[in-house]
Amino acid sequence: MRKNPTGIKIKVRVPRTLIEPLSPEEVDAFFKTLLRYRDFAIVSLMLLNGLRSCEILALRTGDIDLTNYHAKLRGKGGKERALPLPEHVIPILKKYLRLERPTNVKTDMFFLILQGKRRGQPMTPAGLRSLFRHRRRNHGIPQANAHRFRHTFGTDMARSGVQLPVIQRMMGHADSRTTLQYIELSMADIAADFYKAMEKLKKRYDHPG
Predict the structure, then answer these.
(1) Residue 84: helix, strand or coil by DSSP?
(2) Which of 105, 144, 168, 202 is the most exposed place for a label (fewest CB within 10 A)?
(3) What is the structure's pLDDT at 140?
(4) In 10 A of CB 131, how many CB atoms?
(5) Are 31 and 41 in contact (CB under 8 A)?
(6) Which residues share a beta bridge with 122?
(7) CB neighbours (10 Å) of residue 103?
(8) What is the Cα–Cα distance from 92 to 52, expressed in whole angstroms?
(9) What's residue 96's pLDDT?
(10) CATH of span 24-205
């Protein structure tokens, strides 16, 4: 809120910059840089389940049900929700647990540090950020950050026709307006639906003469 020279309060609306989702080419390029099953699992859960960074770090071994394909999440404000897990992510999670996750550790946190003096300790926010920062800097994928993968999930769900309340529940949003910010459609999406509708209208209104 600011005042003009007359002393009248004027409410200024700050333009919101739309966050573009990652392209299939960017996603493919990012996955090709990953070498560990742990990192494959983390990025897959962000891209295919819309997990936040804090939700990744809060996962415990008991939260992942590899038999029934679902996960229990702790989101903002300590709110819990359950999500189905994509079938093709299950083998990645299993390989991480069997081949990479250190054994005989005192913590039940799901994602752990895999090397160095702190091997076996819970993965940290700094460690998770470095997973993305390294690839943005060294592999020419400047848009690839954790939030962008989550946003891509929301956009993909909207493009696939998933209803807004379902997307809201999956992403753990308390306010549907937050979900709308994630599923802004590009002009290509709008144009595709527009011309599809026009084809139907053309048949409806076409008449001889």
Answers:
(1) strand
(2) 202
(3) 72
(4) 20
(5) no
(6) 112
(7) 7
(8) 19
(9) 98
(10) 1.10.443.10
pTM comes to: 0.77
Whole-number Cα distances in Å, 22 to 8, 50, 67, 195: 43, 13, 31, 24
CA-based torsion, 76, 19, 22, 139: positive or negative: negative
Residue bearing tokens 């001889």: 208
CA–CA dist 118, 106 (Å, integer):
13
Report the alpha-carbon distance of residue 197 to residue 162 in Å, rounded: 19
Q: What's the pLDDT band for 9 if we cut at 50, 70, 90?
A: low
Whole-number average pLDDT of the chain? 82
Cβ atoms of 10 and 4 within 8 Å: the answer is yes
Q: Strand, coil or helix: what is 6?
A: coil
- What is each CA distance from 42 to 15, 54, 134, 176, 206, in whole angstroms? 32, 12, 15, 26, 53
Residue carrying structure tokens 């990192």: 39
Q: Is the pLDDT of residue 162 over 90?
A: no
